[in-house]
Amino acid sequence: MTTPLLTVQDLAVSFPGQSGPVRAVDGASFELNPGGRLVIAGESGSGKSLLCRSLLGIQPETATVSGKLEWKGQSLVSLSRDQWRPLRGASIAMIFQDPTAALNPLLSVGRQIIDAIRAHRRCPRDEARARAVEVLGMAGLPDPEHRLTNYPSELSGGMRQRVAIALALSAGPELIIADEATTNLDVSIQAQIVKLLRRLRLDLEVALIFVTHDLDLAAEVGGDLMVMYAGQPVEMGDVQAVLADPCHPYTRGLLRSAPTLRTTREVPLQPIPGQAPKPGSVGAGAPFRDRCPVAVEGVCALQRPGWSQAAPGHRVACHRFEKDGRAGLP
Amino acid sequence: MSTPIIEASAITKTFPGRRGGQPFHALRNVSSKLFEGEILGLVGESGSGKTTLSRIMIGIETATTGEVSFQGRPVQSRADWKALRRDVQYVFQDPFTALCPTMRIGAALAEPLAIHRLCPASERPERVARMLEMIGLGPEMARRLPAQLSGGQRQRVSLARALMLEPRVLICDEIVSGLDVSVQAQVLALLVELQRKLGLSLIFISHDLRVIRYLCDRVQVMLLGQIVEEGPAAQVFDAPENDYTRALLAAIPDRDRLPVSESA
Amino acid sequence: MTVTALASPERGGTGGRPGLFRRNEIGPALVAGAVIFCLILVAVLAAPLIAPADPNLPDLMAVRKPPSAANWFGTDAVGRDLLSRILWGGQVSFLVAGVGMVGSICLGTLMGMLRGFGPGWLHPIVDRIIDIQLAFPYVLLGIAITSVVRPSVPVLILLMVLAGWAAVARVVRAIALQERAKDYVKAAEIIGASRLRIAAFHVFPSVWPSLMVLAAMQMAAMIVFEATLSFLGMGVQPPTASWGGIMLDGKNYITTSWWLTLLPGIAIMMTSLSLVLIGDGLEARAERLRSREADK
């Protein structure tokens, strides 16, 4: 059996609040093997971005991370800035939603990538430059040699995201975290980037954590899926299996809210009523209880649901499912 | 065939090039018609000119050449535009910038009534409350400031503000793009309900083909300032003729599509 | 689990109310500035009640007495009580700077909004006037004017307004142009709002916080400017003396009677410092509110 690359168990990220700590991420658990894939899906406020940031130790300064977070068996929870540095970029790299913010507008693309390479590995400039051309090529930029002298403002949004990917690849990481990396892009560019990430994963055997709000996109990426709501994971399993047989009322609601290319207004969407709760306001009960059509009275408000098995490798945290199985779901 | 309620004919829009660069052709000879009671979808990626076209149709952008007609008559003078804006309203993409940050929701909704003197001042709070109810927000919202509302709530308020004048046409520019899926579904459901109840004609602009498919009767697909395909939604989506339309459809992520083989 | 006692993220639970004076939004600089300024203002306004002596009554028996229990701030070259002169003189300084500040804010706001929302043909004209104003040497203008007409309070106020409005107009113009490009202004246009309505009801409230900052900064600059003019002999004519005028009187004795120049100098410095602190504090507050707005 291989050692997992990343082990996350009962991870919580909390902020100090007026009445005790506010848990913006709570109870996140998963394992990622070398070359594995995990899609984290959720709407805004679900804590998916914060969770990713805490994996890289770049959560806001006021946040406290607790629980188990291990990289190849080494705990990352209380690393200092200096201890994080060799991991960031070199072992774990991140691609952000907004490539413009991730790139320095005043430095050329080549300079930024070469600097990133040399920050992790002492090597002559020529060698770093060759490596920069290589990673730009890997990221699918046409004519990488010429791109070195471009400035970020001279590139389109899709190109900039490719540069950000090249930057992430530059130090040869074992895990890439893509946080809504395709959200601001046109659909055709999004499709290209997803394809690229999928290919890079296979070619370079890097593991991938892909964060998105779009369950259809999650299906395109494939691998494991973790659906988050109000900071807590509510359903986990293989993407295809979960989407074919969603067992949490929230996952089901989300799928019924999202139009596909075949839905028309003859068959109306069924929006989830109400609004997502503010982070930390969920308290002890099931996070989705206030918007849930099948909340179990007297239980969901008080007790946090544990995991139940829906199918091998497919878990769901729901009192209704635990009580009535699939028959009880809306 | 009946007269379209609003029509843009042979619109060209050219922005002068910056610093001696090439001029940018945002729209090249584009025509669009909206008929009574229908929902027209304008779909395209960034730079396709769909927003520019819609802005020209409400007069906040001027066409380089071409003209806009309203109920069969060309709109030319300031007075014409003013008349058009009594019947045609517009909802902006970004709910965070489309509402005045210092104005309370109640005042923002009452403003159109005050400007057009539609009802005595004493009746305004009543009409604001009724509108808030229609868009599914409580009356206490009237006292809030935009900063105290979520994105979905703000977008409902923008929609409500446009509806205060009881327009016949509503132009919606990417109004659900910035919203979460569950909130997006709420706004879409609201829009369908309002369209039915009020007999609105809609121009709905989006980059998301799934939303367009859901909402629209007729679709125009735009690419780089031109319309590359148009027709009834069912036809465009089920039997696309244009290569670009086909590519666009193929790029839409779809949970029901067969998983791509790993060795791709 | 551990809870670190780091500063909690600044989030007013109910969301950002852009009100100007909200509790727990006021920083220490703002408080310090406001306290100092209020003390000085109250003392100056209450001069008729608290001044120990007639500021214009010479006493040739007590000429240039250093600070003592009888005369806290000492006496001047003709034996007038310096504390009384500073208190009364503050009224002149505050009148000129205060009215000048209000006038320059009003004129500057009007011009800035005109540049943002007035008819297009006016724009280049307003821009050029602002440019010329900003390039103008006001001390020289002051000398020129006061050599023609006898300097009086209204003349000084006029000078203050002339010197100050362009800086205000420049800031208001920048905000107006920035806001004008936003969707809510276009949305207002589409529901039929006139330009005047947009400028007054939609954009002006966004200008307001910056105007408060400008007001404090302008007032500080004008206190100093008025003192400069008076010190150069172009202020209100004797015997009514503003702080600059008092320093001018004491100038000849600077080596022997330090208090005659130092004490009114401190009054000028403390006043303008307190105003600058208020301005900085207000600006930091506005910045905090803005960044919170952007967070959402």
Short description:
Chain B has 264 residues and is α/β, with parallel strands linked by helices. In chain B, 36% of the residues lie in helices and 24% in strands. Chains in contact: A-B, A-C, B-C.
Largest interface: A-B, 45 and 41 residues
Average pLDDT, all residues of chain B: 89
Structural Rg of chain A? 21 Å
Range of helix content of chain B: 25-40%
Strand content of chain A: 15-25%
Strand order of the largest sheet of chain A: 6-7-8-3-9-10-12-11
Global geometry of chain B = globular
Reported CATH architecture of the domain at 6-97 and 169-251 in chain B:
3-Layer(aba) Sandwich
Please give the largest β-sheet of chain B: 6 strands, mixed
Fold-level CATH name of the domain at 6-97 and 169-251 in chain B: Rossmann fold
- The counted number of beta strands of chain B is 10
The spatial strand order of the largest sheet of chain B comes to 6-7-8-3-9-10
The shape of chain A is globular
Number of helices of chain A: 12
Unreliable sequence segments of chain A = none
Main β-sheet of chain A: number of strands, strand sense, barrel status?
Answer: 8 strands, mixed
Assembly context of the chains: heterotrimer
Structure description:
The complex is a heterotrimer of chains A (330), B (264) and C (296). Chain A has 330 residues and is α/β, with parallel strands linked by helices. Chain A has helices at residues 48-55, 81-84, 99-102, 109-120, 125-138, 144-147, 157-169, 187-204, 215-221, 239-244, 249-257, 319-324; strands at 6-17, 20-32, 37-41, 64-71, 74-75, 92-95, 175-179, 207-212, 224-229, 232-238, 308-311, 314-316. In chain A, the strands form two sheets. Chain A has an eight-stranded mixed beta sheet with strand order 6-7-8-3-9-10-12-11, with helices on both faces. A four-stranded antiparallel beta sheet of chain A has the order 2-1-4-5. In chain A, a hairpin with a 2-residue loop joins strand 11 (308-311) and strand 12. In chain A, helix 4 packs across helix 5 (125-138). Chain B has a domain at 6-97 and 169-251: 3-Layer(aba) Sandwich (Rossmann fold). Chain B is 36% helix and 24% strand. Chain B has helices at 50-58, 78-87, 105-115, 124-134, 151-163, 181-198, 209-215, 233-238, 243-251; strands at residues 6-15, 24-34, 39-44, 65-70, 73-74, 88-91, 169-173, 201-206, 218-223, 226-232. In chain B, helix 3 (105-115) packs across helix 4 and helix 3 (105-115) packs parallel to helix 5. The longest helix of chain B is centred in the C-terminal third of the chain and has 18 residues, at 181-198. By secondary structure, chain C is an all-alpha fold. Chain C has one domain: MetI-like (MetI-like fold, Orthogonal Bundle), CATH 1.10.3720.10. Chain C has ten helices and no strands. In chain C, helix 3 crosses helix 9 (243-250). Chain C is elongated. The relative contact order of chain C is 0.16. The chains are: A alpha/beta (330), B alpha/beta (264), C mainly alpha (296). At the A-B interface, helix 8, helix 9 and helix 11 of A face helix 6, helix 7 and helix 9 of B.
